[in-house]
Write a structure and sequence with these properties.
Strand content: 25-35%
Strand order of the largest sheet: 3-2-7-8-1-11-4
Radius of gyration: 21 Å
Distance between the termini: 16 Å
Low-confidence stretches: none
Shape: elongated
Largest sheet: 7 strands, mixed
Number of helices: 2
Length: about 270
């Protein structure tokens, strides 16, 4: 089995879509063979004359728990004039050129000789997020967009919260951490555009403006984590992180969050 990871390019595209409102074009994914190892920094080299194969929603299991796998054999055309040791696979957004969004490194390479056909057996590709504090719903939505051509929605707005406990992103439904009960506390709005977030780079995106909360009217204790929700109250936790360093908020203290950084695929 080969495990999938987003490239930095893939992460940047999704981060800019989610947090800057730069809508991603959801198209057909194509699978390509590589003769050299890909990485988060970019794809491997494709054999001269090799053909990428189109994948459909029917080739992939509907994501569950931030994970999806192939459920059909993926068959490349017979090689004509190309051969080599296929050491990895890449997912592109077009039949030629385009961007490599994700990659898979199998346990063993496969030697392809002239007139051979490369076959990736059902269950041979698995993409499971190693995502830190990202909700299962968001993980599944990204996987649906990437492999099953189901467009990833845009957030109309987001609200930032701070917590005294860690969020629980890998349960369903996903829950945020423990927010203050202080009547002065409320989540702060965060715009989904280039005003609040800088452009994603190297697979991460960060806020570029501070978010200040009203001074506490009672002790709120040690604040250890932060999170983004899709509503100013209630709603759904989407993504978050650890406060470094944590901060104790006493009565009368203001509290400001600065440079919140988000990555999608930690592996």
């Amino acid at each position: 089995m080969a495990t999938g990871h987003l490239t930095n390019t893939g992460s940047n595209i999704y981060l800019n879509h989610l947090f800057r409102g730069q809508q991603k074009n959801t198209g057909t994914p194509y699978l390509a063979p590589f003769l050299t190892m890909p990485s988060k920094q970019g794809p491997g080299s494709e054999p001269t004359g090799a053909t990428r194969i189109m994948m459909t929603a029917q080739d992939w299991q509907a994501p569950v728990g931030g994970s999806t796998t192939t459920i059909k054999n993926l068959v490349f055309p017979r090689s004509i004039g190309w051969n080599g040791n296929i050491v990895a696979l890449g997912v592109f957004d077009s039949a030629s050129g385009g961007s490599c969004l994700a990659y898979f490194i199998p346990d063993d390479g496969e030697l392809i000789e002239v007139n051979d056909s490369l076959i990736v057996l059902a269950g041979g590709l698995l993409h499971r997020f190693d995502s830190g504090f990202m909700s299962l719903n968001l993980q599944n939505a990204i996987l649906n967009d990437l492999y099953r051509s189901i467009p990833l929605p845009l957030f109309p707005s987001l609200s930032v919260a701070h917590y005294s406990s860690a969020p629980a992103p890998n349960v369903s439904p996903t829950i945020g951490g423990t927010e203050p009960t202080d009547s002065a506390y409320s989540r702060q709005p965060i715009a989904v555009n280039g005003t609040a977030f800088g452009a994603a780079t190297a697979g991460k995106i960060s806020t570029i403006i501070p978010f200040s909360f009203t001074a506490a009217t009672e002790a709120q204790g040690l604040r250890t984590h932060w999170g983004l929700h899709d509503a100013p109250t209630a709603g759904n936790f989407q993504v978050g992180g650890v406060l470094v360093p944590p901060k104790t908020v006493d009565a009368g203290d203001p509290f400001t969050l600065t440079e919140l950084t988000i990555g999608l695929d930690a592996a």
